[in-house]
Write a structure and sequence with these properties.
Layout lengths: L1 E5 L3 H13 L3 E5 L2 H10 L4 E5 L7 H10 L6 E5 L4 H9 L4 E4 L4 H20 L1 E4 L2 E4 L4 E4 L2 E3 L3 H12 L5 E2 H7 L11 H15 L8 E4 L3 E4 L5
Parallel strand pairs: 1-2, 1-3, 3-4, 4-5
Antiparallel strand pairs: 6-7, 7-8, 8-9, 10-12, 11-12
Bound molecules: calcium ion.
């Protein structure tokens, strides 16, 4: 597991590095936010420990910038005692957890393990098709890192297509499994087609790469086009 520690105080940084390495983590140190940015852009980390009090850009600004760039790693903030406002700002900026200095190393270590566990579960609930990402637990969708707002029905429809990605999904399957209506006098085909058109507009229109394909006379398929 690779951990980036952004902390300017050499004593604290050194102690963190030593303690984490003793627990088997691969630790990289950065002493400023700028150094932190550099490491994040050149290496893949599993977690970042970020001090708020840094020279130049503080930890909260650094975190905000990283999240804006689409960084999804768990980030644990280190805050000064009694700085309640910092903690609130930090969580708003996208921190996953924080720890108040001075802290016991055992607590830091436990928080890190919890964050890494949580992140692992989260990533198992996220399905990717090309640059489309569907988080089945949070029920959120992004395309090329941009959030896509879907209605509940559109999400269910997409979820079904994603779970059957690479396979043809017929209108009958959608009527049965998404709309859960099988005993209708009139088929749901028109309703389904309208929803498919809306979904396509939301996920495919902003992109050059189309993912939701109509298989003429059969149904639909979600897949990445082979170039
Ligand atoms: Ca500091």
């Amino acid at each position: 597991m690779k951990v980036l520690v952004v902390e300017d105080e050499p004593k604290v940084a050194g102690a963190l590095k030593e303690g984490l390495e003793a627990e088997g983590y691969d630790v990289t140190l950065a002493h400023t936010g700028e150094e932190g940015f550099f490491h994040v852009s050149t290496h893949a980390f599993d977690l970042i420990i970020l001090d708020i009090m840094l020279p130049g850009r503080d930890g909260i600004e650094v975190l905000r910038a990283l999240r804006q760039q689409g960084l999804k790693l768990p980030v644990l903030l280190l805050t000064a005692k009694d700085a309640v406002e910092d903690r609130v700002l930090g969580l708003d900026a996208g921190a996953d957890d924080y720890l108040v200095k001075p802290f016991a190393f055992a607590e830091l270590s436990a928080r890190i393990r919890a964050l890494l566990r949580r992140n692992k579960v989260d990533s198992e609930n996220v399905i990717k098709v090309g640059d489309l990402e569907i988080d089945l637990v949070r029920r959120s969708v992004t395309r090329d890192c941009r959030r896509v707002e879907l209605t509940a029905r559109e999400f269910e429809l997409l979820e079904y297509l994603v779970q059957n990605r690479g396979r043809v999904v017929t209108r009958e399957m959608l009527a049965r499994d998404v709309w859960k209506e099988t005993a209708r006098a009139t088929p749901l085909d028109n309703v389904i087609d309208v929803h498919i058109a809306r979904l396509r507009k939301k996920i495919d229109d902003p992109s050059d790469q189309k993912l939701l394909h109509t298989i003429r006379g059969v149904g639909f398929m979600l897949h990445e086009e082979q170039s």
